[in-house]
Amino acid sequence: MAVRRKLIAGNWKMNGLREEAIAQAGDIAAKAMGQDLACDVVICPPTTLLAKIDRAFDASSVALGGQDCHAAEKGAHTGDISAEMLFDAGCRYVIVGHSERRTDHGEGNATVREKAAAAHRAGMTAIVCVGETGAEHDAGETLNVVARQVVESLPPQADGANTVIAYEPVWAIGSGRTPTLDEIAAVHGHIRATLATACGATTEGMRVLYGGSVKGANAAEILAVEAVDGALVGGASLKADEFWQIVSAAAA
Ligand code: PEP
Q: How far apart are the CA of 59 and the centre of ligand 1, in A?
């Protein structure tokens, strides 16, 4: 059976100006420094901050990630960033298909799949987000919706080395609400079963993170759930101390 090393990914979203971001990255790097971390850690800041904070992480094992990328390598796409540009800026991960992109920018599974393929083309790990809305959850549609998103959002070459899945119930993001631990276990188990049947053995090592209102206070119990291989953290990743509490819970 594949051993999956836990991953904690912080998504700063559209937050942070230079001074506070450098301080925040410095605080995180100081906590990571000299430690043989028992899990992988990645910070996904706004693109404007990548060049400002990559030095802070140079001597630590904290990796940098982008929050989105365009599917094309380059071209006439004003305002967009290619996967190659993110790699060039030091990123080794990129989030694709976050529900805020799916909602705010109308991105569907086919677009997410192209973006994940772009991340692979550039040599990065794609963090592919899936998750049901509140209405789908209340209608008992969670497992169907999530399985369809997984199958349709992963490019054929996705495997445990180049892809991570983040299960993020849309209604749990930024709301302070989380599914029960049993619900999280059921969805993660279903994602694993879907990967095994629809995508094959190369996905055995693919990590499946949970995201949605993960905090210092609930991280340990969520990360202990069967088949939860880490967390994608939004709000709590903006506070170095709380973020590190989550990293420490993953490493425990
Ligand atoms: C997210 O947006 O990916 C997220 C998980 O946010 P939060 O932790 O704030 O719910």
A: 27
